[in-house]
Amino acid sequence: MTAISRHERPAPAGPVAASLAFAWRSLLKLKHVPEQLGDVIGIPVVFTLLFTYLFGRALAGSTHGYLQFLLPGTLALAVVLVTVYSGVTLNADLATGAFDRFRSLPVWRPAPILGALIGDIGRYLLAGAIVIGLGLAMGYRPAGGAAGVIAATALVVLFASALSWAWITLGLALRSPSAVMSAGFVILFPITFVSNVFTDPATMPGWLRGVSDANPMSHLVTATRALMAGTATAPQVLWPLAAAGALITVFAPLTVLLYQRK
């Protein structure tokens, strides 16, 4: 019996295969710890149900009328709020030493990060599906049909994936998962609430309306509403796409730099 195998050593996984392997790891973590889906399920249900029946009659005269305005906004809101989890899980892996093990593997260096981001797309799609399914059950009817809903969901998921790079950067910079969670929501809540998710900016004071109009979240919600209504124009869609490109341009290189120095 020989101490060294005579079989040829298998080639290391390429960038795509390695990234997909880490994406599968991210999904398996949800299988074994389903409590991690609490925010993915809770946020869409709370915001869609609570705000429809709490503010519907006051803001639109009826809950059904308000739902037609609100649901595209809660679709964007629910998915964007879930993105903070990307930074939290990365920070947890750093705290437990898992990423030290990943760095010692003969794989493409950014694969653990990129794979985690790919895996998180499943969370975003689940959150979006819950919002849409709940909205349809409550009486929402998109004029743009299935094609409009799919296009709107794709745009929201793309924007959310770009935003996830910011939380990954935060996860590398802060010391604990709870710190990442707290900082993420402190940043996100003003951005998401000072927008056109819940109400028309025309009803806001002048200075606040200016902030809302310049808010990337408002541009995302405007495009989502237009796509689901079947009335989207190229400029409406290009604004959130440009914001997503800017997020990736700024935070992806910064993430790689921090990851190499960590």
Folded structure, characterized:
The protein is mainly α and 262 residues long. 79% of the residues lie in helices and 0% in strands. The chain has 11 helices and no strands. It has helices at 15-32, 38-60, 63-82, 84-96, 98-104, 111-138, 145-173, 177-193, 206-214, 216-229, 234-261. Helix 7 (145-173) runs parallel beside helix 11 (234-261). It is elongated. The N and C termini lie far apart (43 Å). The relative contact order is 0.14.
What is this structure's SSE topology?
Blueprint: H1 15-32, H2 38-60, H3 63-82, H4 84-96, H5 98-104, H6 111-138, H7 145-173, H8 177-193, H9 206-214, H10 216-229, H11 234-261
Q: Tell me the series of helices and strands, N- to C-terminal.
A: HHHHHHHHHHH
General shape: elongated
- Count of DSSP strands: 0
Radius of gyration: 21 Å
Please give the alpha-carbon distance between the first and last residues.
43 Å
The overall average pLDDT, rounded, is 88
**Share in β-strands:** under 5%
Structural class: mainly alpha
What's the main sheet like? none
Q: Uncertain runs with pLDDT below 50, 5 residues or more?
A: none
Domain count, please report it: 1
Number of helices: 11
| Helix percentage range | over 70%
Summarize this entry quickly:
The protein is built from eleven helices and no strands. By secondary structure, it is mainly α.
What descriptors fit this protein?
262 residues, mainly alpha
